[in-house]
Amino acid sequence: MKTAIIDVGSNSVRYAVLTETTVVAKKQLNSTVLADGLFFSGKLSKEAIARTSDAVKKFCDCAKAEKVDNIFVFATEAVRAAQNGKDFTDAVLAKTGIAVDVIEGAVEAQIGFIGASPDKTKTVAVFDIGGASCEIVSGKNGNITYSKSVPVGCVRLHDGANGERARAVELISAAIPKELPQTEIALGIGGTATALGSMASCPKKYEPEIVHGSIVKKEFLLKVADEFFDRKNMRSLYPALTQNRAKVIGYGALAALQILDALGKSEFTVSERDNIEGYYEWKIKGANI
Length: 289
Prior knowledge:
Blueprint: E1 3-8, E2 13-18, E3 28-30, H1 38-41, H2 46-65, E4 70-75, H3 77-81, H4 85-96, E5 101-102, H5 105-116, E6 124-129, E7 134-140, E8 143-150, H6 154-161, H7 165-175, E9 185-189, H8 190-201, H9 208-211, E10 215-217, H10 218-229, H11 234-237, H12 243-246, H13 249-263, E11 267-270, H14 275-283
Parallel strand pairs: 1-4, 4-5, 6-9, 9-11
Antiparallel strand pairs: 1-2, 2-3, 6-7, 7-8, 10-11
Helix pairs in contact: 2-4, 5-14, 6-7, 6-13, 7-13, 8-13, 10-13
């Protein structure tokens, strides 16, 4: 049985087809920046709703062409936080006939943890810096012992800090705890973490097989933040970056630094397994949440 899952994030819409034997799903991405302007207005713009719902429609068409058995569409912080989130879900329903599952922050954090499939013999912290929120979950032996979702992400920071590094640090520090449960392994998942992994390991071309399991050190995160806030051309330095990701990646580097400091770690490991695999484990395989 083939299942298509579409993840509507604050920065990107992602698509993958999974089966019971899938380990790491092959993901397609369309960066639509759904959360553009959300920090100031509290609403999703008509333009962002249109381009993002169009992207969902195109992925649904792909899924039908692949003759999948199920199609799931789930959305995260941008839709659940927006005053007019229903306008987006209505647009998707009208274009595709599929109801969007708007998941809560706690569920988003848990499916990220499940999807990452951490080493069950060690204490693991999994974090996902999205466009409008950041999820941090830790646990051991498959059991979650700490879970937090905070409303800070790359697109929100882009809007709120307006290019000012000190303001970005202030917003991050106010949202992400200064101390988190100590862990043996820190895992980064989602678009920000994988982009940083690509920048560190394969900067010219995004190669998932290289990114998965790669290491990103604090020194590299500082370098990225310095380059970004010095107004360097990030796509020239790191051609693997998409145009929209290049506009916000410095904020992701700063947020990752804060998380590593709070965890007492000097590096994180990148996982290509994330909340898409976690959502599949939950909806199809019946994982407990």
